[in-house]
């Protein structure tokens, strides 16, 4: 396996594993039920590691698994130091991490850093009086007038960020649901308590955290209460602890904002390793509906360079609504009109649907969007179930529409659980189009032409093209607005990325994809650093439902030969004129640019 060299970065390159990682976001509750009680659990997830290894993912991101009254999918934590009893025990978590590491899969988890459940003992104590030892662990005020500039995130269900508490006779601050009071990070005891949580889980072997709702940690008069300098200072404090005591573990920021604001969470390379690129996601959906590259290229042009050793995390769908917070009013109206034709599809400030139904089940579109996800700058995050193009259930409340049980087989409950149907945490899909009879892992594993096999093959290809991890990106000039073409280029290292640390002292086993990586293509350019080679990959995408011509300005690569990546098929060399290609409806192709200009016939099989 090859690894790219993080350009100019210092430190141990093995710690940059996350720049070459495909993440898999998984809802423990919804993945697999090992003890037949109707709820997915850690032992169930562990039992499915073979499948995840086969698929070719590199890192699991576990949605919250702490004890919780589950009024917000577990983002309402009532004990940071335990595992929810429905999901198992701390021992199950450790066994999962160790087994994953043995397979070369890392594991990160959500850290719900901004707030707790109102049933957390810290809040129960804090609300009990104004003088108790935890009285200042949350944000209290005598009236609800302070910080009017701070927006209400769930504005469709909450009227204010303040809620009156009858016992303490004061208002408490919350950026999300009123049952999720915000912690008071101005209190040094709170800041220290959360660092203790961080250490606790890292000591058990987790490879890092997604920092949930990180922009909101502090409040200051006259501000929106987002992205404050104090918040960045606290993130730096967590990072410092990781660098000092847990090198190679990562922080991923969930900061839903404009690229320039979000990029601040990289700091100067001293805050988060990764940040989600939220605004890119809705623009991908706009681009394929408008059949125009502009929405994507425009947001990429607004995306700042990021410090060495950092990476964007990019995604198509996740456990939340397809958020439309970071778009203009006009774009939002357009996306609602196109993708939420039934008002029940709307959730908060977005659309509560999964990938496949959003695309009207069009497999070509799903492939196109995944081809983009796997080639645009950033580490891709796959949402569980999207690898089989699972559907959603818009009749379920809040964001449960996209959190139904994983569909493993056509058996009872979709093979998710052997519990009685009535006991399941949510009903599995049973409709004729997306129900488990029609869409399931077993059937798709048996069918080499399935989307599951297609995606797995793409992950194999991506692994063979390390430049897609951190290479530069140049968007190509093309007169046809439906064509989005770019070149990813840079130097790649012919060495393995660091093995996953094994918490059980077992040797880490490299992931076996079952498929040979593609033979590397020589670019013929002298590497700037010994042991490295240059790699350049041309990625071309047709956003239109009709076949389209593409005339690409490939002047900097004149004389080189594009070699199609999936079939290693050599194409005519790049000449002085714009390079002509034809793409089928929603077509895409990746080409490695090679210096070899042997006659075409000589390279054909
Ligand atoms: C999570 C949501 C959750 C919210 C409050 C978000 O950013 O992704 O699922 O409701 O934080 O914790």
In short:
The chain has 605 residues and is of the alpha/beta class. It has helices spanning 28-31, 42-47, 49-55, 90-102, 121-126, 188-203, 229-245, 259-263, 280-290, 294-301, 329-339, 355-358, 363-375, 441-446, 451-463, 467-470, 600-603; strands at 3-4, 23-26, 59-62, 106-111, 140-141, 162-165, 170-173, 208-211, 250-253, 274-276, 311-315, 322-323, 346-347, 350-351, 379-383, 472-475, 483-493, 532-542, 548-552, 561-564, 569-570, 579-583, 588-594.
Overview of this protein structure:
The strands form 5 sheets. Strands 2-3-4-8-9-10-11-15 form an 8-stranded parallel β-barrel. Strands 1, 16, 17, 18, 20, 21 and 23 form a 7-stranded antiparallel sheet that branches. The protein has a 3-stranded antiparallel sheet with strand order 5-7-6, with no helix packed on it. Helix content is 24%, strand content 17%. The protein contains 17 helices and 23 strands. α9 packs antiparallel against α10 (294-301), α9 packs across α11 and α13 (363-375) runs parallel beside α15 (451-463). The protein is globular. By secondary structure, the protein is of the alpha/beta class. The protein has helices at residues 28-31, 42-47, 49-55, 90-102, 121-126, 188-203, 229-245, 259-263, 280-290, 294-301, 329-339, 355-358, 363-375, 441-446, 451-463, 467-470, 600-603, and strands at residues 3-4, 23-26, 59-62, 106-111, 140-141, 162-165, 170-173, 208-211, 250-253, 274-276, 311-315, 322-323, 346-347, 350-351, 379-383, 472-475, 483-493, 532-542, 548-552, 561-564, 569-570, 579-583, 588-594. The chain binds beta-D-glucopyranose. Beta-D-glucopyranose is lined by residues 72-73, 75, 112, 176, 212-213, 254, 319-320.
